[in-house]
Specification:
2 domains, Serine Threonine Protein Phosphatase 5, Tetratricopeptide repeat, single chain, about 0% strand
């Protein structure tokens, strides 16, 4: 029981700093725990408790993603989008972001919005970008509110509407995006 509580703490707090803790997270992933797989991927990607190895991060992130832990989708998607020590594949990145967004993980909706806006790995579609940014902004995702304001300000993907731009810049500002605050001056 103590070991289960300790493992639960490690997985909850992401406090992996030693080889023993890494082994416990690896055991959780091997047992099919998606959150454990996410932290295993994070350990490999960041060299936390183990030698850094981006290739080894792919499998546990994939397991986390397919197991319903959408942070795994986002981290793996970011690795593919940027080509972080793995082959760049923006199509896979967009698919992973869509999977996370479809599972109501707001960061996934923001990342998918960016993919739609810039046509990265998916057909460029500014109206769909606006929809994804709105979905995430409605859940108080600050970067999404800023991007939605930007789209309204410039009439990109939505009809230009300075009032809506101001409303969303204000929301982004209230949520901590300093460049949104500057747009209000």
């Amino acid at each position: 029981m103590k070991k289960l509580l300790a493992l639960s703490f490690l997985i909850t707090s992401a406090s992996i700093s030693s080889a023993d803790e890494f082994n416990e997270v690896k055991a959780a992933c091997d047992a099919g725990n998606p959150k454990g797989c996410y932290y295993l991927g994070l350990s490999y990607e960041g060299g936390i408790g183990v030698e850094q190895d981006f290739q080894k991060a792919v499998s546990p992130y994939t397991q986390a993603c397919h197991g319903g832990y959408s942070k795994g989708c986002i981290n793996l998607g970011d690795m593919y989008r940027h080509g972080n020590k793995i082959e760049r594949n923006i199509e896979k990145a967009a698919t992973l972001f869509k999977h996370a967004c479809d599972n109501n993980y707001i960061v996934g909706c923001y990342s998918l919005g960016l993919a739609y806006l810039h046509g990265e790995g998916i057909q460029q579609n500014p109206p769909k970008a606006a929809t994804k940014f709105k979905q995430a902004c409605d859940a108080d995702d600050a970067p999404s509110c800023y991007m939605l304001a930007y789209l309204y300000h410039n009439g990109e993907g939505v009809e230009q509407n300075i009032e809506n731009a101001t409303i969303h810049y204000q929301k982004a500002c209230n949520l901590g995006v300093s460049k949104a605050c500057e747009k209000l001056d």
